[in-house]
Amino acid sequence: MGEAGSAIRVLHVDDDRQYAETTAAFLKRERVAFDIEIATSARKGLRLLETAAVDCIVSDYEMPGQNGIDFLESVREDYPDLPFILYTGRGSEAVASDAISAGVTDYLQKAPDTSHYALLSNRIVNAVKQYRSQRALEASKDRLSLFIDQSPLGFVEYNQDFEIVRVNETLTEIFGYTETELLGETWETFVSSESYDDVDAVTSALSEASGGYHSVNENVRKDGERIVVEWHNRLVTDDSGDVVTIFSHCQDVTERIEHEQNLAQLRDFFAEAEELGALGAWEYDESGMSTWTAGTRRIHEVDDDFDPTVEDGLSFYHPEDRETVSDAVDAALNDGDPYDLEVRLITARGNHRWVRTRGKRVEGAEKPTVRGFIQDITEQKERERRLRVQNERLDSFASVVSHDLQGPLTVAQGHLELAQQDVANDHLDSIDAAHERMQTLIDDILTLAREGREATTTEPVNLRTAATACWETMETESAALETDTDSVVLADLGRLQRLFSNLFRNCVAHGSESSPSQVQQDSMEHGQMGQPGQSGEAVENGGGVTVTLGDIDDASGFYVADDGPGIPEDERNTVFEAGYSTASEGTGFGLAIVADIAAVHGWDVSVTDSESGGARFEITGVDKEM
């Protein structure tokens, strides 16, 4: 009906128009803000109320038709709170009583002098002020109620004893209770016992009118499900400090908390992975801004708050590699070309490092952005360097063996054959055996040098097929091979068959030995498989031994076992060392070659007892096809 400070619209109902107009003139003299409409009957006054906005009604009592009380009762049917002042020339306790019963706002008797107009003016102003304030308060309450009812947050209101007096629908959905089930209850209804102490602290502080509090605690739904709820609590007081109400807003943050915990775990995981892998991540955009992770800063040996531009980041690379990296970053930014480089880096502390840096453009970014990883590969590069030196030395050594030793030995063998044609002498046979021994050593040394290189090609190989083919080329007397596997492994076929050949010959050669103290070493594995005339063709004491090939159940690998005397536990760490042998005819290189073949495949080899007490060689870390 109007705001405070604006014009006050008054409807004056009096059957004496002249008196009504006089009253209007005096009221406007008192306050210019009065806007007065006159009606000469209650019926006309009701019609005006239907079409005009009115802040206050001033009505005479004695009027034809409806009197002032009848008019008041009609007004109250549609306007229960509209200010209504009964302004009458007839004063009596009966009239005043009836007016009060009908809901009159004020009662004022007309007077013969003009002084009472000032009093009427004040009564009107005060009534309208109170009316407008009440309307504003009710409107505010309506808006608040609408906000509470439609809020996506749960709402609960308590009295001073922290008993629930109001909840909204969102809160009932969060906790699974109906409004009826919650009214009159306390917060203990949905707070878990483990959170009582925390909630007690909040309610105690609120009871002392200490203000609002924010808390996150575990709550329990009606169905028993435990959830994490975030609360915002507030105590409202009036001007005198008395508590008006206590209310709380809340929301179920279980998923958010779990998400935050998962993110924290992921951050910890990636931070640990970066540190363990000497790895870091980075991001550059076309504006030159960059972001480095902690791992990237560690590699560059800079402080935690260091965030370089693209140019600053490029400045760490070796001058000879800087342009290469710069061109790769530009191509990734502008053309979307990914890159993978191994380049040199000079850290903030002046240390020279080798790094692998990879980057690609981020699709869908607001502006061209490159994101990638950097890894410290200094140790890898050093290992590669040492391997190159080692291979060069092996090549040189193999050259000496194959040329400088093989030549003189061939000459000696030729002269021995000529001497044996002319002279029959047991000493010449001993020389012949020594020559064969030397030839075996040369063959094994060359094999060891050749097998100790990285495997160049691998392919799917059926273990049963490869082992059976190898066994059939060997002189095994009465020994038997049992295969209990259908596995297919990724391997270099030739080297895998060399591994089987050396293990099988070792098992056959020592499978029938009666003394377990003698270390099983291959004395017959030398030379090329299945080529008669080569050393190792004959097999000692092979009778009756059974060799088994099978899968290792609890690991990715396979085993070769025999039912012979086995290998003493205190000697198992040395059997794979080159040159170690207790057999009179062994060179000590057979199992060393097995270890090298396994190593170049990335496998591990070990020896233990078989089920029958013999030797069991286990090869693990093998890639198998399912």
UniProtKB/TrEMBL annotation:
InterPro entries: CheY-like_superfamily, HATPase_C_sf, HATPase_dom, His_kinase_dom, HisK_dim/P_dom, HisK_dim/P_sf, PAC, PAS. Residues 213-265, 339-389 form the PAC domain. Keywords: Kinase, Phosphoprotein, Transferase. Residues 511-542 are annotated as: Disordered. This is histidine kinase. GO terms for molecular function: phosphorelay sensor kinase activity. It comes from Haloarcula quadrata. Gene3D superfamilies: 1.10.287.130, 2.10.70.100, 3.40.50.2300, Histidine kinase-like ATPase, C-terminal domain, PAS domain. Residues 512-522 have a biased composition (Polar residues). Transmembrane segments: none annotated.
